[in-house]
Each structure stands twice: as structure tokens, then as C-alpha cells.
Amino acid sequence: MNPALIDYGAGNLRSVANALRELSIHPRLATTPADLNGASHLILPGVGSFGDCMAQLGKLHLTDPIREWIAAGRPYLGICLGYQILFESSEETPGIAGLGAFKGSVRRFRQRPGLKIPHMGWNSAVPRRPESPTWSGLGREPYFYFVHSYFPVPEDDSLIAATTRYGEDTFAAAIELPGLLACQFHPEKSQDAGLRLLRNFLTPEATARATFS
Length: 213
Hints:
Order of helices and strands: EHEEHHEHEEEEEEEEEHH
Number of helices: 6
CATH topology: Rossmann fold
CATH class: Alpha Beta
Number of strands: 13
Structural class: alpha/beta
CATH architecture: 3-Layer(aba) Sandwich
Strand order of the largest sheet: 2-1-3-4-13-12-11-8
């Protein structure tokens, strides 16, 4: 296994790399299209804004290679912004296009009395297909660590792998396709559950066995 961890200058790379090393997986940093050559997986963590992330990926000439990687069905793991930018647009930066790998937009939690924004801390994610190899051993309602004010709304409901409730909103905490997992929570900060999810997804046997209706 030879995963590439995309470094666009603002991701939480150290914590993600440390979590992977806990699993005896040693990623290489990728800052150019050439760095993706020979990679087994792409891992795109994200901290910052939707627009800044897209701008940085554009400056590094990584936008099209990432789109092509995902379109080819090659293994991709997106975390936080690495999940959000898969969609077409975000309320965070109107007018800035995302990767557009999937139809849908990214919306902000609506301000309501007593609701703290950002959504920060531990919350449950309810897998829609807990029998999937990706969610193996995590139970019916695993807890993960969240830090975000925005969340994707996929047009294709069948993409949604897990949901989370915050305030009056139930949002897509993760999406999944064979070879692709993207989540709003931070598995690298989610202790045993996060490590288990990472191990499940990054194990080639689990990826190869994944089938969805």
C-alpha cells in the first residue's frame, strides 16, 4: 500500500499521518501531479474554507488529476473539506466551483436559539449499511469527532453512507461508493472508532469486497 496524502498547505496532515502510522500505513505527501504516480490511494484532509482549498489545489495543478482519479474509480478518502469539495458549490464561498464529482451543494447550519455553530465535539453517525466492510466492527451508532459549520447535501440520496443529527438538521455525515469514502467527521481524531474506520477502508480486501445496492 502506497497512499498519497495531499498537501495543499492547510490540511491537518500531521494528525492524519499519525493515525495512519498507528495502522502501520506510511503515506507520502503529494504537492504535484507527479507525486500521485504510483499511489494506491488518495487521501485529502481539509481545514480552512471551501474556496481557499479549491484555490490552492488549482495553484498546485491538482484539481484535474483529483477529478480524473475519482472518475476512474480509484481509491479516495476525503475528510472534512476533502468531502465537501467533491460537490458543486458551497454557501461558504458562493461562486466558487467545487470538484463537481457529485451533484449537490454544501450548506451552513441554520442559526437557531441554543444551537452552537460550529458543530464541535463528539456525535454519533448512523451507518445506512452497517454490514458494509467499511463499517465492520463499528456497531449501529459509532461516535466520531466533528468540527464544522457546513455540510454537504448530495442530490443522489443513495450516496449517503451515514447520517448525523445536530439540532434540527440530519445531514450526510459520510458518503460511500466502491473505492470511495468521504466523511464530515475526523476519523484521525476519533480514537478507536476512527482508526477502525480507516483500517477498514484502507485494507485492500475490504475495498475489493465492498458491494452496494
